[in-house]
Design brief:
337 residues; alpha/beta; Spore Coat Polysaccharide Biosynthesis Protein SpsA, Chain A; 2 domains; 9 helices; 37% helix
Length: 337
């Protein structure tokens, strides 16, 4: 891996302000924590978030060595009024009024103080040793900019039918039998958002990129299933000469409600995932996907419509719609510039 370049700023994103112009809450100026744990939540399922917090409360890493930030991403009922996190001596609520997971992550980055940030979704149960293991990996692998779970285990509210199991990888499940790491953009060594660990200088560079870029990867936003905001953080790490990795000793449980196992939802999720990848590729390489309805492409579409049946046909046309949507969003962004 190449050597890392130094940040041009002082290592902190610009301090965010609430709508009234005041900073949400001053940080503790005491001992610097080794980790900042950031939970981004928008209208979370109460029984899920309760379990998420209990799993964090049970971490073997002493609470004096990490801080906890619960980012309320414009929930209908403010999370501050519902969730008591005073059990953590350095736990606090933060509000991000701009809807979208990327916006919530960036608020967490701005408000955190640890040299390593750990992003936890509101349906992730970290293994009791997750934070202590994350610290150890960060020290043992100083050239990694991002790292994360190689053992993301599903807990299904209802067992998925056989017909939809082909879609389950889109639920960010992972079962690596050995560490995977590198500095090229391959899926096997790219960590996902659940349990994502990021060095502060990479997180700051990601903030700076979003401030400067006219083409933004918004990630989940309201009912939109677009993603890849987490993957973009690893792109930033690699651009700055760092590697990325996944480790099976970083274990977590992903809570999956029955609503996310319907065929329609999973088809929409696969379409949005494909669209997101195309948008990320365009942003970082300038490649615009080919129009599936150009003359040669149209022949392929007609052939697949004639030869495919059932769910296989629906999957194919979800991919066609993904390309069409990516092209539309890219064209719209060019008009706005």
């Amino acid at each position: 891996m190449r050597g890392a370049r130094q940040l041009p700023n002082d290592g902190a994103c610009p301090q965010a302000k609430d709508e009234d112009g005041a900073c949400p809450q001053a940080k503790d100026e005491g001992v610097m924590p080794e980790l900042s744990v950031i939970i981004c939540a928008h209208n979370p399922r109460p029984h899920y978030l309760h379990r998420v917090l209990e799993a964090l409360r049970s971490q073997t890493l002493p609470k004096s060595q990490w801080e906890l930030l619960l980012i309320d991403n414009s929930s209908s009922t403010p999370l501050r009024a519902q969730w008591d996190i005073s059990w953590h001596s350095n736990g606090r609520h933060c509000l991000e009024s701009e809807l979208g997971l990327s916006a919530a992550r960036q608020r967490g980055i701005r408000e955190s103080s640890g040299p390593v940030l750990v992003f936890v979704d509101d349906d992730n149960l970290l293994d009791a040793n997750y934070l202590s293991t994350a610290v150890s990996i960060g020290k043992e692998w100083p050239r990694l900019g991002t790292w994360g779970s190689g053992a993301t285990i599903p807990e299904f509210e209802r067992q998925p039918p056989e017909s939809v199991k082909v879609f389950l990888p889109f639920l960010t499940l992972r079962d690596a039998d050995a560490p995977q790491w590198g500095n090229v953009p391959v899926a096997e060594s790219t960590p996902w958002g659940a349990g994502l660990c990021v060095r502060r200088e990479i997180a700051v560079a990601y903030c700076d990129l979003n401030e400067q870029s006219g083409f933004k990867i918004t990630d989940r936003k309201g009912k939109s299933l677009l993603s890849c905001g987490d993957v973009e953080i690893s792109y930033v790490a690699r651009r700055r000469g760092f590697g990325t990795g996944v480790f099976p000793e970083l274990k977590l449980v992903h809570l999956i409600p029955k609503e996310r196992l319907s065929t329609d939802y999973l088809l929409n999720l696969s379409q949005a995932s494909h669209t997101s990848y195309l948008l990320l590729t365009y942003k970082w390489s300038g490649d615009v996907p080919n129009d599936p309805f150009r003359p040669r492409g149209l022949l392929s579409v007609l052939k697949n419509w004639l030869t495919r049946r059932g769910l296989d046909r629906r999957r194919y046309f979800a991919d066609v719609r993904a390309v069409t949507e990516a092209r539309r969003l890219i064209a719209a962004s060019r008009i706005q510039r």
